[in-house]
């Protein structure tokens, strides 16, 4: 096992390039997921006739599908109907679809956790339902949702490794290239990947714990 050769600057830089792609995909996916998940969660919370049931059905279907299947769908199936995405955006689309369903439940639970009296108080003061939702309910709910959202982001970062199946040049993909050229680098590469995933996810875990503590100390 050649540790010094495996941890050369060229290899480490290549791994860091992969980590940067992992972070980019994760950030873009979480932004889109927050938007779509927030909309889906709000629709379900509001109980809009028919629409809330349709959204709920879609969310339940997606949540019960393997993420790998969704990745295959966005990269291999969508081009069959004229929607061609490059590897980066295919991975983003798959993660966004999957994470939106997960986040919608977090949003719905957060909104349901706000006492119903807050809605009644807002509307009795002359606000419309939409104004009450955006100005009173959502700000309160979002604070309680932040730790769960961060936990989901941690899961998303780890889930990006599944995109190696479509050759997304993320951390796992780049590590495979390195130890594919020299089998003596297998264990060092797994050590390096473990360290990088751990640092990123542990920092987010600490932030999640801080937010969780501040929520109860508020």
Automatic annotation (TrEMBL):
- Note the SUPFAM superfamilies from the entry: MetI-like (SSF161098)
Which chain positions lie within coiled-coil regions? Answer: none
Pfam families tied to this protein: BPD_transp_1 (PF00528)
- Keywords from the UniProt entry: Amino-acid transport, Cell membrane, Membrane, Transmembrane, Transmembrane helix, Transport
Q: Sorted alphabetically, which InterPro entries does this protein's record hold?
A: AA_ABC_transptr_permease_3TM (IPR010065), ArtM/GltK/GlnP/TcyL/YhdX-like (IPR043429), MetI-like (IPR000515), MetI-like_sf (IPR035906)
- Annotated localization: Cell membrane
Molecular function terms from GO: transmembrane transporter activity
BP GO annotations: amino acid transport
GO terms under cellular component: ATP-binding cassette (ABC) transporter complex
Main localisation:
membrane
Annotated TM spans: 20-42, 54-75, 81-98, 186-207
Q: How does it sit in the membrane?
A: Multi-pass membrane protein
Q: Specify the ABC transmembrane type-1 domain's residue ranges.
A: 19-208
In terms of NCBIfam families, this protein maps to: HEQRo_perm_3TM (TIGR01726)
Which family would the database say this protein is a member of?
A: Belongs to the binding-protein-dependent transport system permease family.
Question: What protein does this entry describe?
Answer: ABC transporter permease
């Amino acid at each position: 096992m050649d540790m010094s050769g495996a941890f050369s600057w060229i290899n480490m830089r290549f791994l860091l390039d992969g980590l940067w792609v992992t972070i980019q995909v994760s950030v873009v996916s979480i932004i889109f997921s927050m938007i779509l998940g927030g909309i889906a969660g709000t629709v379900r919370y509001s109980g809009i006739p028919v629409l809330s049931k349709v959204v709920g059905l879609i969310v339940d279907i997606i949540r019960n599908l393997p993420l790998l299947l969704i990745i295959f769908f966005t990269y291999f199936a969508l081009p069959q109907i004229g929607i061609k995405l490059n590897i980066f955006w295919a991975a983003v689309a798959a993660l966004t679809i999957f994470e939106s369903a997960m986040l919608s439940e977090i949003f719905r639970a957060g909104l349901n956790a706000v006492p119903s009296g807050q809605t009644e108080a807002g509307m009795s003061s002359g606000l419309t339902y939409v104004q009450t939702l955006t100005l009173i309910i959502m700000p309160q709910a979002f604070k309680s949702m932040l730790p769960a959202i961060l936990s989901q982001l941690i899961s998303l970062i780890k889930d990006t490794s599944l995109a190696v199946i479509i050759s997304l040049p993320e951390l796992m993909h780049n590590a495979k290239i390195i130890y594919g050229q020299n089998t003596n680098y297998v264990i060092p590469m797994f050590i390096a990947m473990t360290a990088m995933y751990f640092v990123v996810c542990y920092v987010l875990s600490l932030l999640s714990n801080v937010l969780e503590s501040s929520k109860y100390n508020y």
